Amino acid sequence: MGKAPFPEPKSLTQRPQWRALTEHRGQIEHRHLRELFAADRSRGERLVAEAAGLYLDFSKNRITDETLRLLQALAEACAIRERIDAMFRGDKINATEQRAVLHVALRAPPGERFLVDGRNVVPDVHAVLDRMAAFSDRVRGGGWTGHDGRRIRNVISIGIGGSDLGPVMAYEALRNYSRRDMTFRFVSNVDGTAFSEAVRDLDPGETLFIICSKTFTTLETLTNAHAARAWCLRGLGDKKAIARHFVAVSTNADEVAKFGIDLENMFGFWDWVGGRYSMDSAIGLSTMLAIGADNFRAMLSGFHAMDEHFRNAPPDRNLPLLHGLLAIWNTNFLDAPTVAVLPYEQYLKRFPAYLQQLTMESNGKHVTLAGERVDYQTGPIYWGEPGTNGQHSFYQLIHQGTRLIACDFIGFCQTLNPLGDQHDLLMANMFAQSEALAFGKTADEVKAGGTSDELVAHRAFEGNRPSNTILAEKLTPRTLGALVAFYEHSVFVQGAIWNIDSFDQWGVELGKALAKRTADEISGTNEPVLGHDSSTNALIRRYRGLRK
Ligand code: G6Q
After folding, report:
1. E strands, 170-291, where?
2. DSSP-based three-state secondary structure for 158
3. Residue 175: count of CB within 10 angstroms of its CB
4. pLDDT for residue 6 is more than 80
């Protein structure tokens, strides 16, 4: 491994800027959002920022102007500007894998330049995009047919992790813009149920499989891809059918060819695109097939608008920078262990799951870039569900539990499905929830409502629960692009402050290696000699005994 790209102090927590924040926490800890809002009537209009169609209201965080100043000072001390420049310059900031991190190049307009080892990759990006568009136009227009000449009506994307969560999320998010006469499904789990249920009611003659795998060696994806090939051959009875019913998205042409997919039908990407940062690369081919090339490009323009904002906006107006710094504040200084992602938009139902990978795989790290154990918390736990459903389940704990949970509310001013006054009701709920979390309900207020004395404590809400609200006009491909890029860069900021490698995933690699060995032990005909711990050995033996 090369040396860490940035000099690091002994520890982040030894920095004067960190210490200043620790001291400052003492002043904030006992202040209530009620008081902060009362002291500044314009707080809700002042502590906001706007870019690329997103309006970020961060006024309901437990912060003052001084908190923001101190956080910005920390960012500066952690060389945030230099780190942003290093990413956009194509430096190998993924230090443990010695790779550039250039997902921003995936959405760069044709005239721009992004260099990887001295080569401008933007023309390569557009060459793939053009091939994807041509292919997608053919499939959508009926020019690309199945083996027996019938139109493709079903698209099944097979991939896992970064090669699945983005495409599923984007398909669900942009369903309103998708071809309603085509069926789109996603298979990720190696559990045979996933594949069997996905194809149960489909005709192989009308089905196209997109095998998405950066490495093209991932156990789950390859297993499902083989199942798909067998299903297709069973239905169509001719090996030549594979060429019409299978395309691949990968960086590994050799493995794609070995699987039997014609390289003509392969769409490439590059090692400088991390899996969880790849939904806007060819990994998004299913998205393009669903919404069309123009809408896909509109999505890229939203990503790009946020990239430009992140790169150029001043720190105090910079949405991802502010959001990332607030995450540091909530995680490290207010000790909030988790972030609830609460989209008030049914189409964003898979967004929390997508964000879970983006944030937790990126910043779930315990050593610095130089490999030293951190002495502070890193990535918080992300989770969530669309509003208003969550309100009837876990919001109870956010309102009245003993832990501090930071929340991100996401909503849109216009609905894509007007139905009476339902959108107003939805949004009223979102605004009411963030208000209640921030301001709570005092015992006096509860009493004033006529509650009997013994119930006052139960019905009082402390409030002072921090939240961000992200509000946009309407869920469009462009807005979705901006929203994803916003979170990508927020994650980057957090990783930069924590001085960790946000772009590797050794924990995932471990899982891949472990399962292989165990799979061999499980499937062998002879009783294997098991060298695991006594629990794992017993579980494997029991499973072998009972499987059929
Ligand atoms: C993402 C991770 C991981 C990866 C999957 C699939 O950043 O690296 O989730 O995307 O393990 O890997 P392949 O695309 O190589 O099949």
Report:
1. 183-187, 207-212, 246-250, 266-268
2. strand
3. 15
4. no
CA of 197 to the centre of ligand 1 (A): 23
- Judge contact between 349 and 172, C-beta under 8 A: yes
**Residue 534, both tokens:** 């006594």
Active site residue 240: no
Phi, then psi, of 222 in degrees rounded to 5:
-65, -35
Q: How far apart are CA 116 and CA 118, in angstroms?
A: 5
- Residue 199 pLDDT exceeds 80: yes
Spatial separation of the C-alpha atoms in residues 492 and 72, rounded to whole Å:
15
Q: List, for residues 207-265, the tens digit of each pLDDT value.
A: 999 999 999 999 999 999 999 999 999 999 999 999 999 999 999 999 999 999 999 99
Count of H-run helices and E-run strands, the chain:
22, 13
Ligand 1 proximity of 350 Cβ (cutoff 6 Å): no
Nearest Cα to 541, choosing from 399, 528, 533? 528
DSSP assignment letter at 325: H
Residue 392 appears among annotated catalytic residues: yes
Pocket of ligand 1 contains residue 359 by CB under 6 Å: no
- Determine if ligand 1 sits within 6 Å of the CB of residue 205: no
User: What distance in Å separates the CA atoms of residue 36 and residue 427, rounded to the nearest whole number?
Assistant: 25
Residue among 473, 281, 500 at smallest CA distance from 377? 500
3-state secondary structure of 467: strand
Separation of CA 493 and ligand 1 centre (Å): 22
Output the average pLDDT for the chain.
Answer: 96
* Residue type, position 514, single letter: L
What is the Cα 154 distance to its own chain's centre?
26
CA of 213 to the centre of ligand 1 (A): 7
Distance from the alpha carbon of residue 165 to the mean position of ligand 1, in angstroms: 10
- Active-site annotation holder among 226, 239, 474, 512: 512
Query: In which element (H, E) is residue 246 found?
Result: strand 246-250
Q: Phi then psi for 65, rounded to 5 degrees? A: -60, -35
